[in-house]
Design goal:
single chain; about 190 residues; mainly alpha; rod-shaped
């Protein structure tokens, strides 16, 4: 604390000393230095120097950096837009290729289905023809057997009819009829 008070006593003048110094210099109230007209020329000079230095700094340092940043952003945005347009074209081409492949796949599926349907029809037709041919063969065979059975049955029918007719005539007439007459009568009745 001793050091602080000693320093304060030696370094700072008292309020009365400061007031006496002001009174001795001008003898009254002095204006605030920036508003004092006597300092206007130096203030205007420093204002001009500061303005020119700031203008030079802005023109040579800040504006080129800002311009470079803006130009870089413009190039980046233009590049991004070009990339987006390229990607959109690629996407459109991919969609068109997908739709073309889908249409081709549908056409192939339709072609395969048509071919399978035609093959199934042809196979069914061949199978039907084979079955019909087999049935026609069996029918012809059956008709031949029926004809042979019928002809053999008809042969027997003729002899049976002749025997039956001869017995009937013999019972009715009491005497047997000639075999040739009975055979002629049965033959005439069958025709």
């Amino acid at each position: 604390m001793f050091v602080t008070t000693a320093y304060a006593q030696t370094a700072a003048p008292s309020a009365t000393e400061a007031h006496e110094g002001v009174a001795a210099a001008g003898g009254g109230h002095e204006a605030f230095p920036p508003f004092n007209p006597e300092f206007f020329p130096s203030q205007l000079l420093w204002l001009a120097i500061t303005f020119i230095a700031f203008y030079y700094f802005v023109k040579k340092v800040l504006l080129p950096r800002i311009g470079d940043t803006i130009e870089h952003r413009r190039h980046t945005i233009a590049g991004n837009l070009e990339e987006a347009a390229r990607m959109k074209e690629e996407a459109d081409a991919a969609v068109a290729a997908y739709e073309q492949e889908l249409a081709d796949a549908r056409a192939r599926a339709h072609e395969i289905a048509t071919k399978a349907r035609d093959e199934a029809r042809a196979k069914a037709e061949n199978d039907r023809k084979k079955v019909e041919a087999s049935l026609d063969g069996k029918l012809a065979e059956s008709e031949k057997r029926i004809a042979s059975v019928k002809s053999s049955a008809m042969k027997d029918v003729g002899s049976i009819a002749e025997d039956t007719a001869s017995m009937i005539v013999e019972r009715l007439l009491g005497s047997p009829a000639s075999k040739s007459d009975i055979a002629a009568a049965v033959k005439a009745a069958r025709e």
